UniProtKB/TrEMBL annotation:
The keyword Transcription applies. InterPro entries: DNA-bd_HTH_TetR-type_CS (IPR023772), Homeodomain-like_sf (IPR009057), HTH-type_TetR-like_transc_reg (IPR050109), HTH_TetR (IPR001647). Residues 4-64 form the HTH tetR-type domain. This is Transcriptional regulator, TetR family. Gene3D superfamilies: Tetracycline Repressor, domain 2 (1.10.357.10). The keyword Transcription applies. GO terms for molecular function: DNA-binding transcription factor activity; transcription cis-regulatory region binding. It holds the Pfam family TetR_N. Residues 27-46 bind DNA. Keywords: DNA-binding, Transcription, Transcription regulation.
């Protein structure tokens, strides 16, 4: 197996194992066995399991980072916020396996670099959706709105999610209408 295809095979195996068993429940040995390489070969491509997790999460996080505006941005209501929600959902649908893994694995969300970055992105998203600093009621509305995007990607077959994209967008907008 060529180096680049071996690296991709390790990433694919890691994503499958992380999604099924969680970050902490997946060992480097399990990944090596699944791909048919030694632990040393895994370490050659990824010196630490954290490096594997980071490389898997990075495309999704980079794409969300590019979509979500800066701290003080206030998209117009409701058109700008709806467009922001649509773009955010498009990112989740572009990387559904990674989104499912991140949403479902508490350990990886607590992983310092990945968790901190996702938390920061989602804080900016909540702030942009609400259009002002988050009081407790607005924080709940924004959390419900984000949940309306993440949960179906994790819990519903992708083809059903894609077919019902409009429902997800309306479900995300509904709690925001209450507090805007």
């Amino acid at each position: 197996m060529a180096r680049s295809s071996r690296k991709q095979a390790l990433l694919d195996a890691a994503l499958g194992q992380f999604a099924q068993h969680g970050y902490e429940g997946t060992s480097v040995g399990t990944l090596a066995d699944e791909v048919g390489v030694s632990k040393a070969a895994v370490s050659y491509h990824f010196p630490a399991k954290d490096d594997l997790a980071a490389e898997l999460a990075e495309p999704l996080l980079d794409a969300l980072d590019a979509v979500v505006p800066g701290e003080n941005a206030n998209p117009s209501w409701p058109e700008g916020v709806q467009h922001l929600i649509e773009r955010y959902l498009d990112v989740l649908l572009t990387y559904p396996d990674v989104a499912t893994w991140l949403e479902g694995d508490r350990a990886v969300r607590l992983n310092a670099p990945i968790g901190r970055r996702l938390t920061h992105i989602n804080h900016r998203m909540r702030r942009a959706m609400i259009g002002r600093p988050l009081d407790p009621r607005a924080r709940v509305a924004a959390a419900v709105a984000l949940g309306a995007l993440w949960r179906p990607v994790r819990n519903v077959p992708l083809e059903d999610v894609s077919r019902n994209r409009d429902l997800m967008i309306e479900s995300a907008l509904a709690p925001l209408r209450v507090v805007r």
